Amino acid sequence: MKSTNKLLTGMCAFVMLLIFVVPFTVIAGSFDGSKNLLCAPQSAVECGPDGNCQQVSPASVNLPDFFQIDFEEKMITRVAATESQKGSKIDRMEVLDSKLVLQGADDGVEGVRDGLAWSMTIAQDTGKLIASAAGEGEAFVIFGACTPK
């Protein structure tokens, strides 16, 4: 009887490990730059040089409903982007404090002085993202989430 109880206890412990621990390691591994991601901006904050900031919709600051991160190509692009929407190159990528950190700069529209630098963090345990972008006389903070593609 004791050996049966030990066997059942061991099996229960193993099942609990599979249910609670393995999914978290699978999820965490998905946000380390090894798998492409599909992301959605959920809210945005726009700030001007006067220090006034306001919450705005992602669409009002020209963010797409969804964008994809291609780690092999090191590019961030709109889902269903047109040829004129070239995307943004990832210049730097590293893992820091359980966050995937991506950075780059984007010229924007050719001939228009609208270039900006950006930085994005994606939490490795949840896929939540926070991005910031700064240009001339404006700054943005974007909150969203990603999922493996």
Describe this structure in words.
This protein has 149 residues and is an alpha+beta fold. Helix content is 19%, strand content 42%. Strand 6 and strand 7 (99-106) form a beta hairpin. The chain is globular and about 40 Å long. The termini are far apart.
The oligomerization state is: single chain
Question: Overall mean pLDDT score?
Answer: 83
Order of helices and strands, N to C? HHEEEEEEEEEE
Uncertain runs with pLDDT below 50, 5 residues or more? Answer: 1-28
- Summarize the biggest pleated sheet: 10 strands, antiparallel
Total number of strands: 10
Give the terminus-to-terminus CA distance. 49 Å
Essential attributes:
alpha+beta, globular, 42% strand, 149 residues
Topology:
Blueprint: H1 2-20, H2 22-30, E1 37-47, E2 53-56, E3 67-70, E4 75-78, E5 88-89, E6 92-96, E7 99-106, E8 116-123, E9 128-134, E10 139-148
Antiparallel strand pairs: 1-2, 1-3, 1-10, 3-4, 4-5, 6-7, 7-8, 8-9, 9-10
Question: What can be said about this structure in brief?
Answer:
By secondary structure, this protein is of the alpha+beta class. It is built from 2 helices and 10 strands, in the order H-H-E-E-E-E-E-E-E-E-E-E. Strands 1, 2, 3, 4, 5, 6, 7, 8, 9 and 10 form a 10-stranded antiparallel beta sheet that branches.
